[in-house]
Amino acid sequence: MPRASLTPAAIVTAARRVADDEGIAELTLRRVARELGTGPASLYRHIADRQQLLHLLADDLATGYPLTRAGRDPLDRVVRQWHAMHDYLAAHPWGARIIADGQYALPSARPIAEHCVDQLAAAGLDRETAVRAYRALWHLLLGHLLNAHPFGHLHGARGDGTDLDRAVRWLVTGAAAT
Amino acid sequence: MPRASLTPAAIVTAARRVADDEGIAELTLRRVARELGTGPASLYRHIADRQQLLHLLADDLATGYPLTRAGRDPLDRVVRQWHAMHDYLAAHPWGARIIADGQYALPSARPIAEHCVDQLAAAGLDRETAVRAYRALWHLLLGHLLNAHPFGHLHGARGDGTDLDRAVRWLVTGAAAT
């Protein structure tokens, strides 16, 4: 493959394919170079290290977040938005882990943040509370995605597909009430 | 060290020391055997594999959860309980990861589950809602512990020590209201 194809976009597409197909642990610069039909040395001219590759991948992931406007009322729109984000991230199991491990802000995540905060404000939260609720909902969502432990299933309430929706609704209802 | 000292309690104590001091990645049967002044072969007579070692460690961790009854009202008691659980797990950074990765129920976690569900019921939730809220609060707590990403800090509401308390209060208030 000619060196001209080593654009950031081509590199991140190849990295995403490796992460989706083989898992994040397999994602090395060497493996991505092989995917692109080139050698590690060529790739190192474009990417400093694995950390930068993960950053590019996280930034690319953030460009694809769904921005939904569906729902019968403001609270329902918030619930559907977070449900859609859950499904999007669940389709890329490496996503939640690199978001949680990433201690940097991603420029491409700004539209989703603003969309979500606006939705929370429309549901009755003042601006600062909306931003705090936005952060709390991320903790909740990442907990859902990263946690395999079946809490509470021995106590008569088995987890199901409505768990996250319910918790988002509770959290936002409580934030609007206090 | 004589073989008589290789009780399950001694093994799990040594494993906990290794995990606290060196991190979970360093926790191997070989490393624990060295900590106990014995060889891996001796340890394998008591522990089948690393998975069993992690299970023992998770079970041991669960015996130590704080059960608090402090607080000025039922909701405040719930908030303080989860705050205490956060602090307990934050002191053992490997804890949240092995809980989240563990797809088994731990017998020693039953007291904490019952205590927390009782507290939620006292705060006005019916039994099934209390169990569901218990699971949602675990997702929230694990999200807090596993997530290093500073969501919302660019939007004027920097995270602080009150984030979890606030989110717990919102979630329980909303669960009681719906």
Protein chain pair with the most extensive contact, residues per chain: A-B, 49 and 49 residues
How big a fraction of the residues of chain A is strand?
under 5%
Largest sheet data of chain A: none
The CATH superfamily of the largest domain in chain A is identified as Tetracycline Repressor, domain 2
Order of helices and strands of chain A: HHHHHHHHH
Number of helices of chain A: 9
Rounded radius of gyration of chain A (Å): 19 Å
Q: Note the overall shape of chain A.
A: elongated
Q: CATH top level of the largest domain in chain A? A: Mainly Alpha
Tally of DSSP β-strands of chain A: 0
What does this structure look like?
The structure is a homodimer of 178-residue chains. Chain A is an all-alpha fold and 178 residues long. In chain A, 64% of the residues lie in helices and 0% in strands. Chain A contains 9 helices and no strands. In chain A, helix 1 crosses helix 4, helix 5 (74-90) packs across helix 9 and helix 8 (127-146) packs antiparallel against helix 9. The radius of gyration of chain A is 19 Å and the shape is elongated. The model of chain A has no long low-confidence stretch (mean pLDDT 89).
